[in-house]
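quick one before i forget lol
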Amino acid sequence: MIITSLLDTDLYKFTMMQVVLHHFPAAQVEYRFKCRNAGVDLTPYVDEIREEVAQLCQVRFTPDELQYLRELRFIKSDFVDFLDLFHLNEKYVTIAPAAPGSGEIEITIRGPWLHTILFEVPLLAIVNEVYFRRTQPQPDWSEGRKRLEDKLALLKMPAHADCVIADYGSRRRFSRDWQEEVLQTMRRVLGPQLAGSSNVHFARTHNLVPLGTMAHEYLQACQALGPRLRDSQVFALEVWAKEYRGDLGIALSDTYGFDAFLRDFDLYFCKLFDGVRHDSGDPIAWGERMLAHYAAGRVDPQGKTLIFSDSLDIPRVIELYERFGGRCRLAFGVGTNLTNDLGYTPLQIVIKMTRCNGQPVAKLSDTPEKTMCDDPAYLAYLRQVFGIKAPA
């Protein structure tokens, strides 16, 4: 059994779920799975994935886990009471081979947002672990440990003593046990340079800080839930601020492209939110523009945090640290490069929200290949509304 705790997911799933409970409890959504690796055949593993999902749906929150959540100051008591009754239901998930010979599988999650939001991360972790335990039955752990030690040695150099990173690697990890070993090694070697983990289960069991705020799905859903499409990003940020009142103040900047974000992220939001997170496009150009945006509003960037989390490896982290260190607060979320680097090609798999309340929703990423929508007409309309040119 791969998933043995419902805390074995990213913190932002719970923070978004609390917003859903309090503001959008009737929302209906649809998510779809995509594997971006060419030539990877996942169809032999469909039955095993189904079996793991069935077992996942038998897991419940334990009293100790609920008490841990209750002690997080931004988690409200009625939400924990709801989680005490909660379980995932496999009737909301469909897993099947796609067209014969394609090697692709179709995974669709469809149902109430409140009851489906926790599927994404454990389901991706299941697909990863099933795939790798079948294709690499005797992993080269020594190679993985050597690679990890070499990376951490770069961070331990005196010039990088203030460079802080976090584990963001749950969804694309090689396995649950390997992620735990990576975290234990990072904690031993890095000490205070390890900021924490997005994984709530490991944060709890290893006394780390759980990290995360919002994901793209939240801002996407607001395309259908807000009063007007053009105002959906502003609506999402305002609802978030209303729910958390100063906690969890990191805004995600690329759901509609960075230009549209800067237009919406006015002086009010610059002062209200603690910082912003980068997840697509050129990180250096993004960071320079974000600092300039703060400066233009006479907001001191020294009091704001830039979080970089897009496909990072340690050399890239160090490059960004050297570029922006001392100019603002910095944080780095590293995922696949830490939790799935044993010498095998990692799976580039995602589960993205594609509909909310029957309406198409989409992310207009600054990295075009990350855009995912099942309705080209809606995508064109979204670009028109937010003034975003289609990629060449």
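fyi The CA atoms of residues 99 and 105 lie 8 Å apart.
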